[in-house]
Amino acid sequence: MSNKDNSVALITGASSGIGLVTAKALQQAGYRVFGTSRKASASIAGITMLTCDVTDEASVKNTVAEVLKQAGRIDLLVNNAGIGLLGAAEESSTAQAQALFDVNVFGITRVTKAVLPTMRSQKQGRIVNISSVLGLIPSPYNALYAATKHAVEGYSESLDHELRTFGIRVVLVEPGFTRTSFEESLTRPDQPLAVYDSVRAGMAAFMRNGVNAGDAPEVVADTVLKAATAAAPRRRYTAGKQASQVRFLRRFLPEAMVDKSLRKFNNLPA
């Protein structure tokens, strides 16, 4: 493992779950870590916590300025902040869909844009964007959430090509089910329709069981650390056995077989 003493990491959404465990892993690896949360949070075990709303451009700029004031540089950005939405695509208003994209997609673009001038002046930097296996495959009753992760994938791959000449690399980490409180804090549709009630309830139970049996957040944290420290980083890092299997199936199996497997996996009729 690379010794990252004196390197500075900024991770969004670091007050709990994957973000908190990852922040701790980075700190233990030698990074000076700044974490963010939407609400004020006390600093934890050597991690400096800052209040930042990734949907507010001024808040993002102020957070990055504070990190630079205290540390003078930013070597690693981990874009982890995100929210979920469980429900049929038809059940969400356009405003709700826009709010989801504002956090999961535009939140990443805001924070990334804010740190890039510093990374370019340093002539080096690493950006790790937390995606999902749902950035690779469709997910019924998670259509809008999956759409945000597909957007993150396209943005990250394209941005990586733009920034390599400046010594900056952009990589993706794609977790599967992970044992966090993510499922408990899922947003529910703001225009629910009775026709979807039973299947939506079944999908909620399916997700709950998946999370309970999922990978420990440390699996994702270890993957982020690998992506952050690799001398020649890959474009994508799947986190955990299930995520690796999903990536393999999507890449190598015929589309019809993937479609059939996905419906079976989600307990949907053929």
From TrEMBL:
UniProt entry keywords in alphabetical sequence: Oxidoreductase
InterPro entries xref list: KR_dom (IPR057326), NAD(P)-bd_dom_sf (IPR036291), SDR_fam (IPR002347), SDR_oxidoreductase (IPR051911)
All copies of domain Ketoreductase, residue ranges: 7-198
Keyword Transmembrane helix carried by entry: no
Keyword Secreted: no
SMART domains referenced in this protein's UniProt entry, alphabetically: PKS_KR (SM00822)
Annotated family: Belongs to the short-chain dehydrogenases/reductases (SDR) family.
Protein name as annotated: Oxidoreductase
Organism: Methylomonas rosea
